[in-house]
Amino acid sequence: MFSPPLAGTTGPVSAVLLSAGLLLSGCSSQSAQTPTAPATSAPVATPVAGETVGSGSPSPSATAEALDGLTIALDPGHNGRNSRNPSEISRKVPDGRGGTKACNTTGTATAGDYPEHAFTFDVAVRAGDLLEDAGAEVVMSRADDDGVGPCVDERGQFAGEAGADALVSIHANGTAETSASGFHVIVVDDAVHADVEEPSRAVAEQMVTAFEDAEFDPNPAYGRDGVVARTDIAGLNHAEVPAVMIECGEMRNRDEAALMESEEGRQRYAEAIVAGLEAHFAEQ
Questions:
Q1: Domains, the chain, ranges and CATH?
Q2: Is 247 a catalytic residue?
Q3: What global pTM score does this model have?
Q4: Which residue has the higher pLDDT, 5 or 244?
Q5: N or C: which terminal CB in the chain sees fewer CB atoms within 10 Å?
Q6: CB neighbour class for 262 (10 Å; exposed up to 12, middle 13-18, buried from 19)
Q7: pLDDT tens readout for residues 18-63
Q8: Which of 154, 197, 205, 247 is catalytic?
Q9: Contacts of 215 (CB under 8 A, 6+ apart)
């Protein structure tokens, strides 16, 4: 079962883990304080060597063999100590289109102060469990939820450095309007990175189908097909492999926040991500 190693360990996976900075997304950056999970929800477990986070075996899939032997890069958005290190996460790094942008952001949170960084890390670990059960090797941009970063350029580059077949960056949106709901999938615009845009969109389209099959609705504010091409996501701009960013839902929406705060909900998100990857690579 998948368990991201602690920073400082050795081995093929830890060699590509990054020690600082994390991807600046379409998510809203909120409080300068690090929020904590609400008391009414199950705490997010931070894995250590030899431990895993997950809920049993993955659901059987007719296309699971499609992942056997592949390397999948997972990038859980933001990080647990970003809000405590404003000078580090605000320093400028290359944005992948000739300019610069901040290293990272603090991410958003639910009204109950359940933080995006905790949600994304838990979903990534659960997805990692499922991917390894399907025969894939998993690499992650960060080893735990108690660090800073990594920066946007590093988060786009680590997948290529690991020889990954695809990169999935996991986020949740923070629209101020609480009626906003639904997921959307972001890919790089071909004006920035034409070589990666087309295969990335193929992954994104399968992700949309998988999320809909899991009874998640796309956010109508982001296009009819649930896929949005953007030029301002530095992690995608720097990616040299097919890469998508999934905004799993709206953390300010009461119903979606409750789902994200629950272990059952986070498992559903993880399963949908893996199902999307399975479907994509089954067609390759």
A1: 24-42+51-282 (3.40.630.40)
A2: yes
A3: 0.82
A4: 244
A5: C
A6: middle
A7: 333 333 344 754 433 333 333 333 333 333 333 333 333 344 455 6
A8: 247
A9: none
